[in-house]
Amino acid sequence: MTATAPAALTSEQIGALARAVSRAPSVHNSQPWQLLVRGTEVDLLERRDVVLRRHDPFGRDRLLSCGAALTNLELAVRVLGRDCHIEFPDRDDAVATVAIGRPRAVSARDFSLYHAIGRRRSHRHAFFHSRVPAGVRAALVAAGETTGVHVVAPAHLDKLAELLGFATRVLREDRGYQRELAMWTAHTRVTGDGVPEDAMNEEALPVAGLIRTGTPVPDDVVLAERLADENLLVVCTDGDTEAEHLAAGAALERVWLTATAKALVGSVITQPLHLTGFRARLVSELSLPGVPQAIFRFGYPAVPTAPSPRLPLGELFPDGPTGGLR
Ligand SMILES: Cc1cc2nc3c(=O)[nH]c(=O)nc-3n(C[C@H](O)[C@H](O)[C@H](O)COP(=O)(O)O)c2cc1C
User: Fold this and answer.
1) N or C: where does the chain have the smaller number of CB atoms within 10 Å of the terminal CB?
2) Both 274 and 170 in a single domain?
3) Residue-wise pLDDT tens digits, 282-307
4) Which of 156, 295, 297, 286 lies closest to 235, judged by CA?
5) Burial annotation 119-147 (CB, 10 A radius, 16+ → b, else e)
6) In contact, 42 and 73? CB cutoff 8 Å
7) For position 262, which CATH number holds?
8) How far apart are the first and last CA of the chain?
9) Over the chain, what is the mean pLDDT?
């Protein structure tokens, strides 16, 4: 008996994959990814032309963002009821190739995470409350854990407050940095990328959003108390390779979608991690199990958050719109 080849994707199915990828979180909402569909294989391409010279000079957040998109892509394939195998090709632009296989049953977990994709958004506001049951916190940690990736709740919040307070003061005064950030917050409505002004919030936890010239910095003791009122998780990796940046982004998105599926909201902090020497200080002061790649804060919402814009779906495809996608 000869096995039949897996069926190619229809344009509706390609549209479902594109929508899932497009809703992934990304640094400054830059959406640094594209999709190349080749029969039953989909390449996730990294858009290296998306450059944040001041925020992300080495492109590590760009790869983390591609990792988040990869999680969404994988979930969307599984929810189409298809098997899915991921390879990491040794190619310059493709960070992963998703091989779509034969039909298979959709698991309840994949279904629930997939449906969280459209509801997940950066919530930079104060939380209504942060008393998250231990079992729920454990589920978030478990969602992120994978070979080489560790998700931990940081101890020593006084030290963390000291470091974050220092980073806030430095970034507030960094004119080049602030110019770049202003560019990424100015044009969102026109282009469909960038961070909308109303997605920022400096009243909650000053370090929760993107630090701007007017961001207040409470003293370290107050900041430590406010950090203690939130739930924090740090995504760490054993090493600091590009493959680990991708894996960290994929893990971060699994944690975030798990939180969303459990009616939690949150936001990500990577901004201070880019300061020279900051990661090393964090590892030693907080006794982290690896290199910190992102901090995730979460709790139950007091106010709703609007979705941020996205580029037209057609821009996801290097060869132009596929199947009438706009
Ligand atoms: C790798 C990465 C780094 C990020 N860093 C920050 C950050 O330092 N501060 C922040 O407020 N949001 C940060 N974000 C969140 C993005 O700004 C957000 O995902 C994007 O604006 C899209 O909005 P959404 O999450 O509501 O869909 C980061 C997201 C990713 C994936």
Assistant:
1) N
2) yes
3) 999 999 999 999 999 999 999 999 99
4) 295
5) ebbbbbbbbeebebeeeebebbeebbbee
6) yes
7) 3.40.109.10
8) 42
9) 92
Residue 269 sits in the same domain as residue 142 = yes
Taking CA 12 as the corner, what is the angle to CA 8 and CA 16, rounded to the nearest 5 degrees? 100
272 lines ligand 1 (CB under 6 A): no
Please tell me whether the overall predicted TM-score, pTM, comes out greater than 0.85 for this model.
yes
Pocket probe for ligand 1: among 26, 117, 189, the residue whose CB has the most ligand atoms within 8 Å is: 26
The pLDDT value recorded for residue 321 is 53
Q: Specify the residue for token string 């982290």.
A: 288
Residue-number span of the structural domain to which 240 is assigned? 127-301
321 within domain boundaries: no
Ligand 1 atom nearest to 55, measured from its CA: 8
Q: Is 123 in the pocket of ligand 1 (CB under 6 A)?
A: no
For the CA of 61, the nearest atom of ligand 1: 1
